[in-house]
Write a structure and sequence with these properties.
- The protein is an alpha/beta fold and about 280 residues long.
- About 40% of the residues lie in helices and about 15% in strands.
- A 6-stranded parallel β-sheet has the order 1-11-8-7-5-6. A 3-stranded parallel β-sheet has the order 3-2-4, sandwiched between helices.
- α1 (about 5-25) runs parallel beside α10 (about 260-280) and α6 (about 135-145) packs parallel to α7 (about 165-175).
- The chain is globular and about 55 Å long.
- NADP nicotinamide-adenine-dinucleotide phosphate binds near residues 137, 161, 163, 166 and 187.
């Protein structure tokens, strides 16, 4: 039976570490969070970020803008925050209303304040060097692997999904730690052939039941990034947990696995940006 990787407990530990380090900085770190419109799910995410900031001793600067806010006004706010030393990190909650070009908005955030690491300059640094921070979800997966003493080195790692925020940076992080990485997507001809070879399988697709026992190698580490909702309203991932857990060596639950880590890494990212800004200011 697999060991269940407890993302909730590790996230708490990370938040405590961030709080300890934030308290020792000469200036309190700050995160500006911008929410445009009244999407209920986004409002919950933003509230959670505020709560996390509070627990970590990070100042949360909140900007709640009406849905009809113009792109120009949003860009003007970002330009102001780019110059505001109180904001070490800037985060724009996605999705944005349709009339706003998300890409233009994300590109307007100064790369050294890009708490989510979505700016193309940071994406480039992921390929060619070291960005100051990595996208929260894949970085959270790496932190979980480290916590449980699992190294990708010499392992066959298979990542399902190739989005810019999860799949691609996940593959780069595993590669950086000497994993041999395969990335699969909707045009992969024989998914099962790939997943069955994985020593470490990371699924970030968004399809309940995609991974059952037959798709997993005996003793594999199975990381379920996906967050789906069943017709009954229950949260689940891509992996059939009950079927796969007896076969895997380690497995993440949904909820309580990767999700809490994503939130905790955001706090860690803001701390890292604040440290960088304060070192530069010396
Ligand atoms: P996304 O942008 O929709 O990407 C999904 C990926 O899955 C795409 O690359 C797609 O391939 C691939 N895919 C679709 N059907 C497939 C199939 N049958 N076999 C193999 N690959 C397939 O989603 P995302 O933003 O990366 O998020 C992925 C999942 O993770 C979602 O469930 C999301 O809710 C969850 N998520 C969780 C967290 C967290 O904190 N735990 C954070 C972010 C996202 P193509 O590129 O070919 O279309």
């Amino acid at each position: 039976m697999a060991i269940i990787m407890d993302g909730k407990a590790l996230a708490k530990k990370v938040r405590l570490q961030v709080a300890e380090q934030a308290a020792r900085l000469p200036r309190q770190p700050g995160l500006a969070v911008i929410l445009v419109g009244d999407d209920p799910a986004s409002a919950v995410y933003v509230r959670n970020k505020e709560k996390d900031c509070q627990q970590c001793g990070i100042r949360s600067l909140e900007y709640r803008l009406p849905a009809e806010t113009s792109q120009q006004a949003l860009l003007a706010l970002i330009a102001r925050l780019n110059e505001d030393p109180a904001a070490d990190g800037i985060l724009v909650q996605l999705p944005l209303p349709r009339h706003i070009d998300s890409r233009a908005v994300l590109e307007a955030i100064r790369p050294d304040k890009d708490a989510d690491a979505f700016h193309p300059e940071n994406a480039g640094r992921m390929l060619t060097g070291e960005p100051a921070v990595w996208p929260c979800t894949p970085a959270g997966v790496m932190e979980l692997l480290h916590e449980y003493g699992i190294s990708p080195a010499g392992k066959r790692c298979v990542v399902l999904g190739r989005s810019n925020i999860v799949g691609k940076p996940m593959a780069l992080l595993l590669l950086r730690e000497n994993g041999t990485v395969t990335v699969c997507h909707s045009a992969t001809p024989d998914l099962e052939e790939a997943t069955r070879r994985a020593d470490i399988l990371v699924s970030a697709v968004g399809r309940p039941g995609l991974i059952g026992a037959a798709q997993v190698k005996e003793g594999a580490v199975v990381i379920d990034v996906a967050i789906n909702r069943t017709p009954e309203g229950r949260l689940c991932g891509d992996v059939d947990f009950d079927a796969v857990a007896p076969k895997a060596s380690y497995i993440t639950p949904v909820p309580g696995g990767v999700g809490p880590m994503t939130r905790a890494i955001l706090m860690k990212n803001v701390l890292a940006l604040a440290k960088m800004h304060q070192a530069e200011a010396k």
